[in-house]
């Protein structure tokens, strides 16, 4: 699939079979590439879609038992799931402009009553669905269709038999499978061991290390800090090419890698894309720049606005202003990596792993 952004003038290509996604730089008047990196899209290229309003496993404490502090507070909040009608309206608006969606929300998306209908509808309309699951209630009978319709599946690292069972079942169906590993003060020793001692389960595409955030049930005391020797040791491991080949990171991690893994080529970086190329849709059908905006400070109701109007709204513009230096420490203004990093997370200073933010928290 190819697409040219009509407002910001660059091209995007996406391969739905491999997930490869490429953006050009901003195009000049004759269509030639310039040195200017585009800042945003006129429409999100990737959407996180919170189809789950509540989590039956959360109520039985599955996340707590595994040590993951659910940022969606799945064990305390109970809202209706997203309806198929809302989901269908979303896909109809996204067709040809959004390449992929990541299904999630408060619980395992494979437990949504219309899950199969949703992934089929998305794929048939050229939007590739992906999803994350704990694997607890995953029905192996749906996996042939998951293989047919989905791009990749991520299994959350819940350190349980059901995690292992889900990984094996997905791999045996030939499904591209990642592990989502929430990196916090309580899990970083295990993460170091996985990389240093090459303990990543075989057959896995990548282990994606996601930064723990002090949102929902997430504790501030579990948030990684720049000056921690373990944080330095972990991220420094990615100066070795072989370690980069088995791991991936959320874009929130960019400042940490910039500091501790300087051998990674600058061209490989994508910093926070929230509100620039991606956004989150809540189960009750609001658009947020990022799923971690738990207070919904930048929410726009999709029952009253199109996705396009919401993505180009004043609320989203206010959020995007934060990339442009609003409220950043002075050090960002003179930092040689500011183009790459854009000052880190626009929502929470506390997760930016950079010495500039050590005093700001
Ligand atoms: S000083 Fe600011 S721009 Fe530079 S790496 Fe740190 S957070 Fe990013
Ligand atoms: S807004 Fe913050 S939490 Fe959300 S993707 Fe960006 S860096 Fe991560």
Describe this structure as you would to a colleague:
There is one protein chain. By secondary structure, this protein is of the alpha/beta class. The chain has 2 domains: 38 residues, no CATH class; 315 residues, TIM Barrel (Alpha-Beta Barrel). It contains 14 helices and 13 strands. A 10-stranded mixed β-sheet has the order 10-9-8-7-6-5-4-11-12-13. A 3-stranded antiparallel β-sheet has the order 1-2-3, with no helix packed on it. A hairpin with a 6-residue loop joins β2 and β3. α7 runs parallel beside α8. The longest helix is centred in the middle third of the chain and has 12 residues. Bound molecules: iron/sulfur cluster (2 copies). The site of one iron/sulfur cluster (SF4) has 10 residues, from loops. The site of one iron/sulfur cluster has 13 residues, from α10, α13 and α14.
Secondary structure topology:
Blueprint: E1 2-4, E2 11-14, E3 21-23, E4 46-52, H1 56-59, H2 62-66, H3 84-94, E5 100-105, H4 115-124, E6 128-133, H5 143-149, E7 153-156, H6 161-172, E8 177-183, H7 188-196, E9 207-211, H8 229-236, H9 241-244, E10 247-249, H10 254-260, E11 278-281, E12 286-288, E13 300-301, H11 307-311, H12 314-321, H13 330-334, H14 338-341
Parallel strand pairs: 4-5, 4-11, 5-6, 6-7, 7-8, 8-9, 9-10
Antiparallel strand pairs: 1-2, 2-3, 11-12, 12-13
Helix pairs in contact: 3-4, 7-8
């Amino acid at each position: 699939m190819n697409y040219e952004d009509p407002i910001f003038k660059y091209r995007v290509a996406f391969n739905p079979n491999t997930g490869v996604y490429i953006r050009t730089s901003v195009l000049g008047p004759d269509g030639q590439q310039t040195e200017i990196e585009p800042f945003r899209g006129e429409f999100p290229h990737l959407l996180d879609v919170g189809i789950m309003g509540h989590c039956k496993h959360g109520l039985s404490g599955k996340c707590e038992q595994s040590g993951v502090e659910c940022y969606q507070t799945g064990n305390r909040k109970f809202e209706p799931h997203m309806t198929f009608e809302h989901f269908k309206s979303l896909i109809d608006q996204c067709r040809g402009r959004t390449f992929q969606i990541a299904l999630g929300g408060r619980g395992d998306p494979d437990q949504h009553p219309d899950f199969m209908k949703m992934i089929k509808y998305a794929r048939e309309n050229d939007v590739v669905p992906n999803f994350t699951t704990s694997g607890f209630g995953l029905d192996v009978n749906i996996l042939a269709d998951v293989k047919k319709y989905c791009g990749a599946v991520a299994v959350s690292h819940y350190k349980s038999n059901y995690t292992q069972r889900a990984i094996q079942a997905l791999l045996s169906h030939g499904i591209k499978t990642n592990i989502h590993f929430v990196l916090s003060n309580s899990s970083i020793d295990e993460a170091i061991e996985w990389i240093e001692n090459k303990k990543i389960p075989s057959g896995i595409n990548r282990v994606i290390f996601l930064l723990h955030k002090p949102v929902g049930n997430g504790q501030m005391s579990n948030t990684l800090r720049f000056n921690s020797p373990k944080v330095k040791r972990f991220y420094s491991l990615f100066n070795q090419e072989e370690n980069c080949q088995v791991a991936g990171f959320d874009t929130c991690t960019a400042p940490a890698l910039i500091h501790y893994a300087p051998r990674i080529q600058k061209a490989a970086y994508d910093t926070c894309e929230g509100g620039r190329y991606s956004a989150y849709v809540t189960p009750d059908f609001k658009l947020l720049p990022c799923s971690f905006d738990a207070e919904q400070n930048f929410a726009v109701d999709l029952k009253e606005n199109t996705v396009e109007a919401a993505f180009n709204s004043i609320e989203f513009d206010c959020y995007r202003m934060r990339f442009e230096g609003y409220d950043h420490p002075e050090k960002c203004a003179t930092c040689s990596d500011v183009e790459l990093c854009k000052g880190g997370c626009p929502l929470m200073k506390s997760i930016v792993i950079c010495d500039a933010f050590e005093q700001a928290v």
